[in-house]
Amino acid sequence: MSIGKMNRRSFLSAAAAATGGLLVKFRLGAAETAPSKLNAFVHVGTDDSVLLYIHKAEMGQGTVTSLSMLLAEELQCDWKKIRTDFPGVSREYGGNQGVVGSQSIRTSWESLRRAGATAREMLKEAAAQKWNVDRGTLRAENSFIVNPSGGARLSYGSLAEAASKVTPATNITLKDPSQFHIIGKATKRLDTPSKVDGSASFGIDVRLPGMQYAVLARCPVFGGKVKRFDATKAKAVPGVKSVVAIPTGVAVLADNTWSAMQGRKALEIEWDEGPVAAVSTASLTKTFAGLMDQPGQPARKVGDAETALAGAAHKIEAVYQVPFLAHAPMEPLNATANVRPDSVEVWASTQGQTAAFNEARRITGLAPEAVKVYTKYMGGGFGRRARSDYIGEAVEVSKAAGVPVKLTWSREDDLQQDWYRPASYGHFVGGLDQDGWPVAWIARIACPPFGGGGTATEGIANMPYDIPHLMVDYHPVDQGIPVSYWRSVGYSQNVFFAESFLDELAAAGKKDPVEVRLRLLANQPRVKAALELAADKAGWGKPLPAGHARGVALSNNVGSNTVQIAEVSVERGKVRVHRVVCAVDCGHVVNPWGVEQQIQSGIVFGLTAALKGGITLDRGRVEQSNFHQYDVLRIDEMPKVEVHIISSQAAPGGIGEASTPAIAPAMCNALFALTGKRVRKLPVKFEELG
Amino acid sequence: MAVVQFTLNGRPQTVDAVPAMPLLWVLRDTLGMEGTKFGCGMALCGACTVHVNGSPVRSCMTPVSSLAGKHVVTIEGLSADHSHPCQRAWIEEDVPQCGYCQSGQIMTAAALLAKTSNPTDADIDEAMRGNICRCGAYDGIRKAIHRAAELQRSGGAR
After folding, report:
1. Is the ipTM of this complex over 0.90?
2. Which of A45, A51, A156, A167 has the fewest Cβ atoms surrounding its Cβ within 10 A?
3. Which among A330, A349, A612 is the top mutation candidate for probing chain B, defined by the most B β-carbons within 10 Å of its own β-carbon?
4. Which of B87, B129, B139 sits opposite A634 (nearest CB)?
């Protein structure tokens, strides 16, 4: 059907389906005109609908809702009239659209309130011109501009078109927090209705006319290349359309995903495996261990740890280890690309929207105006979708095959071709004075390099404790295993190391673990307050049922402080976490309900890793293939999580990654209290608890 | 290729497909019904759960040829207006985060409630432990199932 033959409504809904945003659900009012654009974030329809453009991406962390709250706080619109959409990549939204490092609130806190306020003032100005009064005399409330003298009211919808032509005011004063009516109120998610009826459109749900479904055969050894391949048998599989080679493998295209998968099984490929074929978990661990007696790259130096240690009354030494971890988001990786000679369009569930744009540009060599990236809901991200490898593959395949392509990863592809949370190995030495208080601490870390120098030791080098003599150094060990960001990044392993080792120091000094921490946090009032709150709420020191014990740990990451106290038992051969009390200070809270969801979520993520996670390598290949070998926490293992939010006027912190690091050490410290056995290697092995 | 006839969300459906092709891909790629999700392809995660003759099945491991004459219900067929007690309860409890697993969670829960009108926590554990949620929305899922049971007992869909 040509556009000429379509009525405006069906054209708009087809266009919306193609861009794949929430516009699919956006119903135009009777007037059937597009909403008026007040600025890049706020569009208002003649029917009073408010369309908010969410320039970040949604992977479950609640950005669609929390960023809408920031806009609506100042816009003074009726919350029920809000619709949202993802605008895709545009310079209007800055040079780097993406969601990493739990930064969405932090980077939007000021700018989106300002965007909402600016739009509100444009609506006011439009009303002021109609009434021939001064804008400053008018009030905005619940999607109306009101003239307090006389009580005349005009709806946002009736003002929208005129407002869109107003020059935005620059002298905007934002509300004082005491006037907030949305920010700080527990608010339900805007995306929930579409997520209970199957209509929410994820990357994997994109469908284009003439689109083919592709899967890619990649070398099972990281960094390996195709030597030669024979596609004869693959092409004979029913439904297979074609087979194309791209730089990272061989793609099979078919008229459905399953046929493409069957075709891939029938491919005959000879690989040049390359040097990583010599790497195994055992060889890597040996390499890490062999570096522990050599100085590494300095990461932190306070006082003179070596001298202080030499003079310490007691010395404690321990080695900690964690494995590689996969992200395993529920939506397997995928991307849809349509490369034509003069344009490229990409639809993707991605944490790195601008990175995806740049990748599409790099591969096609097209001008920026010819590149379009459309943001889709993500079925989980956890850092994996910050990489653009899977998007580049789809662009490569579409370019090579000359058709629109949706490229889907199987779960096996996902677990075996990830950019993993690095395996890490840490040697710790601590010294106590004659009264049993920690005075010296030396930590040496070896792990594959990722995300710059600081990430390998973050959570140790910058721990909030006042240790008089501290030395942290680091050996980067690059053996070609792809590593990258995994929810909470370096903190995910280092907080386990540091908080467990601190517990060892407390035990060696015969101190209570909370007491030691409080003493070392004398100069950190916010962390200390969170610890006191958690201890109080958990009933720290109070009796527990027989066979139960508590452990404490805390984390200071993504600009927030999280303290967790876990209550555990060991039952029928399994570690059971019954209850987690979590006190969180994340500064000014936008959506307390969002904070609670994210705290729960981060704890499950960290607990999964601590109890079950582990990617191991043999001959450069990942040994796990699907959830039967890479299990995750299930509903019957979910602890009762109690979240206590410390509300404050401090600048907002991040929340999506805040609670992941501390759960493993809190649980392991509780296991020590229960069994006397110290867990120094994750995942926890029940057999080793004795 | 083989022609298979079954009932899909109350309507007759005819599909011409390779007999071994899993229902998941028939739904998603052939019929364009994308509410049912791909998660693992090995019946390990529950994201692809649909009802076949009222029982929850993993559509990723269900060959389309096995469906001849059967009744298939997907998330799109649960209700036209969010009125199923599970959907109402899921909205009340604001369960989803990323939301990707929720079609499967809801279909599994709906099958549980059809059989067990007042499930205990142990019943919920048993029925739901095969459904993975990487966002960890398990607490909300449990609360929503209890709430859906209440809604169902107090008059069903309204």
Report:
1. yes
2. A167
3. A330
4. B129
